Amino acid sequence: MRSESCDIFCNVIDNYGDIGVCWRLARQLAHEHGLAVRLWVDDLGSLAKLCPEADAARDVQQCRGVEVRHWIKPFPEVQPAKLVIEAFACKLPQSYLEAMAAQQRSVWINLEYLSAEDWVHGCHGLPSPHPNLPLTRYFFFPGFTSQTGGLLLECDLFARRDAFQNDAARQQAFWQSFGMDMPSAETLKISLFGYENDALAGLFDVWASGAQPVLCLVPEGRILPQAGQYFGATAPRAGSSYARGNLQVRVLPFVEQERYDELLWVCDVNYVRGEDSCVRAQWAAKPFVWQIYPQHDAVHWDKLQAFLNLYCAPIGAAAGQAMQELWRAWNSGGGAGQAWSVFIEMRGELELHAQQWARQLAANNLALNLLDFSQKIGRMRALKIEGQ
Ligand code: TRH
Questions:
Q1: Same domain, 371 and 275
Q2: Alpha-carbon distance 191 to 122, whole Å?
Q3: pLDDT of 77-112, one tens digit each?
Q4: What whole-number distance in Å separates Cα of residue 267 and Cα of residue 347?
Q5: Which of 11, 13, 16 is the pocket-test mutation for ligand 1 (most atoms within 8 Å of CB)?
Q6: Measuring CA to CA, which residue among 9, 64, 80 is closest to residue 42?
Q7: Of 66, 106, 300, 360, which is least surrounded by CB within 10 A?
Q8: Is 9 touching ligand 1 by the criterion CB < 6 Å?
Q9: How many Cβ atoms from other residues are within 10 Å of residue 314's Cβ?
Q10: b/e string for 13-35 if b means 16 or more Cβ within 10 A?
Q11: Rounded to whole angstroms, how far apart are CA atoms 312 and 94?
Q12: Which of 107, 75, 67, 103 is nearest to 91 (CA)?
């Protein structure tokens, strides 16, 4: 039997990754597993960007089968759910913790950030007793191997992706919805979602002077000012279009999560950032370039390399090296133009690998693993109580 209710707590620090993951998980637990999910989020405006029907001014609302609650202070008196998910070690309200301790019916999980590093294997599933309440929190790590909690993947995503990619009319409608014609077959379509990046101009130079037409789609966001600057534009915004040589850049609005998937599916190469868009690019099964979320102490380089080691292990040396060089250049802010020319030569091999990788990873489903794990913890606790 599954836990039938679930509270997910999300503290939005910056960007869209935290709420992006929580919103995806909330919908999956509600739609695919029938849980009554409450999503507590302290910044409803960020959720509204991913799901435009969410009303940032409403403290309580139903959104696509999920009860969305504004996480405010003081925290209201509520009955804790059976499954309590604290996303990325956000701190649960004291009154909620006390209610959990009094009732002893919740399984409390801290959903961690995604990493391909080896240490995750030893930490996934570990318990952490609360210092002064009779509660235990369990660490749940997403990841790329069977010793981790896996990745978020909707059960119908691959079928939807394949149907979309085989349906010219739907693709046509996709382009038209952005006021564009379907690009020619010879045009290389690239989505570019990123943070500020000094490597951008070099990349644009190579695309502008290359033999193949490139259409680069830039969603509104942190890299956009630099994309505009390249063309001498001071206020680029959704709908703006710029061209130089063989490069055309089109600015897209920030779209809801499902449409962002479609953008990844129509493109030939995807530049992604952070955590969730990186996973979605892997499900899109196209060659991709990851700009990792930069951390002050530069530990993100270890994280980037750990993923590259895993991802590139099954591919040929030349393709692997091309990918590593472009990713390192893109993340270090220089040399991405040169590295691109080698990378794109390897496109065929990288695309085949991307397809195999997606199929292989799909077997390790985070939502299923999370439910199995919480069920196991619940059973262990019941046995312990019986034995007392
Ligand atoms: O927004 P991000 O940079 O989030 C980051 C990372 O998650 C990082 O790990 C975290 O520590 C930091 O925030 C605080 O990148 P990410 O994770 O890819 O999240 C973007 C979300 O936005 C993702 O769910 C996809 C979604 N998205 C849309 O829904 N529509 C869009 O048009 C675009 C471009 C993205």
A1: no
A2: 36
A3: 999 999 999 999 999 999 999 999 999 999 999 999
A4: 13
A5: 16
A6: 9
A7: 360
A8: no
A9: 11
A10: eebbbbbbbbbbbbbbbbbebeb
A11: 45
A12: 75
Return the residue whose CA atom lies nearest to atom 25 of ligand 1.
277
186 is catalytic: no
CATH code of the domain in which 40 resides: 3.40.50
Quote the CA–CA distance of 192 and 198 in Å, as a whole number. 14
Q: Is 164:262 a contact under the CB 8 Å cutoff?
A: yes
DSSP letter at 351?
H
Residue 184, domain CATH: 3.40.50.2000
Residue-wise pLDDT for 140-197, tens only, equals 999 999 999 999 999 999 999 999 999 999 999 999 999 999 999 999 999 999 999 9
- Which amino acid is it at 251? V
The active-site residue out of 7, 18, 261, 276 is: 18
* Distance between Cα 260 and ligand 1 center (Å): 11
CA of 47 to the centre of ligand 1 (A): 11
As for how many domains the chain has, the answer is 2
pLDDT (tens digit, 9 = 90+) per residue, 278-295?
999 999 999 999 999 999
Per-residue buried b or exposed e for 79-89, using 16+ beta carbons within 10 Å of the residue's own CB: ebbbbbbbbbe
Residue 160: exposure state from Cβ atoms within 10 A (0-12, 13-18, ≥19) = middle
Reported in sequence order, the residue ranges of 163-246 that DSSP labels E, i.e. its strands, are 188-192, 214-219, 241-244
Residue 136 shares a structural domain with residue 56? yes
